[in-house]
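Long-time lurker. I teach an intro course on protein structure, and each term I like to show students one example going from raw sequence to a predicted 3D structure in token notation. This year I'd like something fresh instead of my usual example. Would anyone be willing to generate the tokens for the chain below so I can use it in lecture? Attribution to the forum is fine with me.
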Amino acid sequence: MTGRARIQTPGPALHALKAAAFELSPEPAMVVDGEGALAAFNEAAQALFGQGLALLARGRFQDALPPGSALVSLLTRAREEGGRVRERGLEINLFGLPPFEADAAAAPLEDGSVLLTIHVRANGLGGERGGVEVAGLRSIVGLGRMLAHEIKNPLAGIRGAAQLLKSGAKAEDAPLAQLIVDETDRVRRLVDRMEAFSDDAPPDRTPLNIHQVLDRVRALAANGVADGLALREQYDPSLPPTSGDEDQLIQVFLNLVKNAAEAAHSRRDGRGEIGIFTAYRHGVRVRAAKGQRLRGAPLEVRVVDNGPGVPAHLRESLFQPFVTSKAHGAGLGLALVAKLVAAHGGLIDFESEPGRTVFRVLLPVASNEDVSA
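-- Reply from a regular --
Happy to contribute to a lecture. Here you go:
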């Protein structure tokens, strides 16, 4: 007999293994049944929340959470969508503990209950964390300014000289001069994109209907990058206005739809699809820039494609500059998207597996000051 032996695990033994994995998981985990009661919790959850968990098991878990709790929203989404969902940078407030920030995930189980896991980051308890990982953008801001000043002027001179050489060159040398012109133009475009990071001015925010932005993006995509793809949308018509710069938000969502279209086009069966969905998510909060207080960001926009998915080795750094899976990409598109979303007081996140990638943008509701401006 050759090859690796396969272990057949009987039903009861498999159940025991799953129970042991739940109990021994280093991440706090809880099971909330279909009635909202706490059905089970592991040692890590007990260590995090203390004796309050045992007392809470006698009643409804969701009833003990504060109004608008992000955890309730997460549990609801998992049941409605029928799959695993996650949130980053949630404010957790349970059992009288001081509020802290953490990531959380919820996954529906076969019996109608939901498995809730919480990941407390190293600085989550009492620490501060931005809604978007933008630390890597700080250096690129300075680099963008430097490049704009130090490279653009010499590039213009090089291009002009190459055009003069081309006009007087022999026929066999003309392609070389044109190559210099083309490559100079390519470097100039790259510098222009990097220069976008050097603009630290806050966006010119006014109240706007996010669906008008998405309709514009859809029209542009349908006649361009998404041509030949199934493009569908499902909007929540009750969404209140958000506050933002319309041009910048168009840039954000057009970039996401463009990436989704490229992924969907890569399917070999020719059945690429893109979806744009909106919803209102209660309890989602994002920390504003410079450590300001958490602000609600309940307006959700999801851009979904059925392409091959984001490569696993890129997922942890996807929003950092120069990270790309494209052969000729600069890796600046998603980094700029993250910067613009953060400037609008929002959050961007994604989930990806082969056949389904979801980019999710959460934005705040326009305040009274925005409406009266």
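Some talking points for your students: The longest strand covers residues 100-108. Residues 1-10, 123-136, 327-331 have pLDDT under 50 and may be disordered.
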